[in-house]
Amino acid sequence: MPRKKLPVGQIGTIRYEEVGYRRWRALAYVRTFADKRIRVTGTGRTKSDAEATLKANANDRVFENAGAIIDGNTTLQELLELTVKAMRAGTIGNKKLRIQSVNTYGRQLSLFEGARGERAIGNLRLCECDKSIIANWLVKLSERTPANAKLAKILLSRAYDLTVVHGVNVWPINPTHGVKLRANDSEESEPVALSLAEIQQIWENVQSWQTPYKQTDLVGIVGALIATGFRPSEVLALQWSDFQLDAKPKAKATLSGAIVRQDGKLVRQGYTKTNSGFRTVTLPDWFRDMLIERLVNADNVLVFPNSRGGFLDIVNVRRQFREARGEVFSHVKFKSFRSSVATAIENVDGVEEAARQLGHASPAITGRYYVKRAADAGDHTAVLEMFAPAQSSQ
């Protein structure tokens, strides 16, 4: 009768040998996740010590996965780097992510290295990095930066999926399952809706900042954000061929791409975030006039190139806007113009038209994240009528 196979990870019968004065060796077999039966040993001053060493050695060896790129000795950092590569290639998850999203997750890798002051759990081997370590690390991270903790949790979850694909059962279940993170206050904050007076003041501040020595056309970029409701990365990708400045009765612009960072380089992605994002918007006359002024001296296919004729980096442009906007508007970000456009259109033409302008497939997205609304308190005038002033007898 053939010998019954050991279950994966289980240690067989342990034998003990006395190998010297107060020195014992424990010997046994264990089956690895590569489906190999290997012998492991451990030594110690007593049988118990030798057995404990044997079990620790067996735990290390059981995750060896012959021929695979991941095993128990792979560090968490190596696993996460492989995960980002798989996300970029679209070989993990339900759908291939946009390069912007993959880059966002890739930026979280430095957290696990300890580059931003966190504990460097990325240096731990997978056989050492259990759920309690990961859960504690995520919770501590969320206390300092909830947004990064949320992204790190998703990345770890995708890393777990990758271990399953490669047959490495280092975590019995997803180590992020059930981990409660601190809520990100900014996620619950209301969208900023700038008033006409505020926009006019920001205009003045930006125009004062702009000098002939400043290469970035910040006035034009802010104008494009206000005139279209496009995202900043979309505005920086605008080409002169995207505009129909002589269209009647109004000039138009067609959104067709965005500037993204890919493999460390800025590139123009020739498609929009969603299918509904590919759209043509009608431009206000003041912005058409602004573009016509710039077109006279244009020597680049891009409307807003950098000083060398290439793509502007949104990080640098945001920094310049922070310098220009004025201290009183420290709460205003580039995305504030998008929500201001949405709110202004919704107030006049309704949320459906605001959704069309912003390129949302559903008005619900526009209403939830981009339109600032006052809560409806209901009609209580029947009660409030009792407070009417008494009629004068005269």
UniProtKB/TrEMBL annotation:
Tyr recombinase domain residues are: 189-386
* Pfam families according to UniProt: Phage_integrase (PF00589)
> Does Repeat count among this protein's keywords?
no
Gene3D superfamilies tied to this protein: Intergrase catalytic core
Superkingdom is: Bacteria
Sorted UniProt keywords: DNA recombination
Is Cytoplasm set as a keyword in this record?
no
SUPFAM superfamilies referenced in this protein's UniProt entry, alphabetically: DNA breaking-rejoining enzymes (SSF56349)
Known InterPro entries for this protein?
DNA_brk_join_enz, Integrase-like_cat_sf, Integrase_catalytic, Tyrosine_recombinase_XerCD
Q: Report the PANTHER family cross-referenced here.
A: PHAGE INTEGRASE-RELATED
Q: What is this protein called?
A: Tyrosine-type recombinase/integrase
